[in-house]
Design brief:
Blueprint (H helix, E strand, L loop, with lengths): L1 E10 L4 E8 H10 L15 E7 L9 E5 L9 E2 L3 H16 L4 E10 L2 E6 L6 H10 L3 E4 L2 E4 L5 E3 L5 E4 L1 H7 L10 E4 L2 E6 L3 H5 L5 E11 L6 E5 L1 H10 L4 H4 L1 H13 L2 E6 L2 H14 L2
Parallel strand pairs: 2-3, 7-14, 14-16
Antiparallel strand pairs: 1-2, 3-4, 4-5, 6-7, 6-8, 6-9, 9-10, 10-14, 11-13, 12-13, 15-16
Helix pairs in contact: 6-8
Amino acid sequence: MSTRCRQRTIDLGAARVAVSSTIASFNAQLDFIYRDQDLGPGSADFVDLRVALRPGSPWRRWRPQVTLWSEATRPFEPYPLQSALPLFEWGSNWLLVQRLNAYLLLHAGVVARADRALILPAAPGSGKSTLACALNLAGWRFLSDEFGVVDPATGAMLPLLKPAALKNRSIELIGGHAGAVLGPTFPGTRKGDVAHFVPDRDSVAARHQPARAAMVVFPRYRDGAPLRCSPLTKAEAALRLGLNSFNYRKLGPVGFDTVVRLVQTAPAWEIEYGTLADALPCIERLFGEAP
């Protein structure tokens, strides 16, 4: 159902996104998963990204669609209308990668204890999102699920607070925890069933507070696997961070220097695990021992 156009600016911490849409259900879903992050319609003068979600042709009644527009371009094919929120999340992530080249963007979840950050770089399907959400529910501050934003000038980790897209089994696993807040489940998307985990309000309130990198953990979930925890050399960690980055090559020497400085100060580990009950205590112990 469409209404008059709603405009808002979402404050993610390290970036601002201006969003407009006439789709009532999409606007209601944004209200829910970006609670306390909407700066209102009068704050869109200085933003990093502008997007519009528009319903497709009114003549397409049997399978209505939605399109995402940004700067007068439509970078993606239309989605089913009921999947407007997944289109916005995936589309805005892709567009932010193109815009935020003042920072090194790691493909990583980031959580923190006080001002000390734990970076979780991983390829898709490694359990990064599930682990980041579980750590948030265990009392860690949530900085990001998808982007490890590193300021090259200071080495600080900057929050980019977007909801975590949980897929398939992870939805039930995280949604069953006390205190977990999830948006609606979208069945049968291009990535399977998807629901968005909403970070806790303390993390949202702290979205402008940077943290210093204290430890790097490369997680790998394997169903039924026993816990395996191995330290990585600085050279191994630097190589893998570069591989798990969106713009490392684009930044050239700046990206290289930023990664080298990060691994000099933050010890790195690889963890393979079969259950969160194994992974969480291991991470807590390693983090407590990190300098």
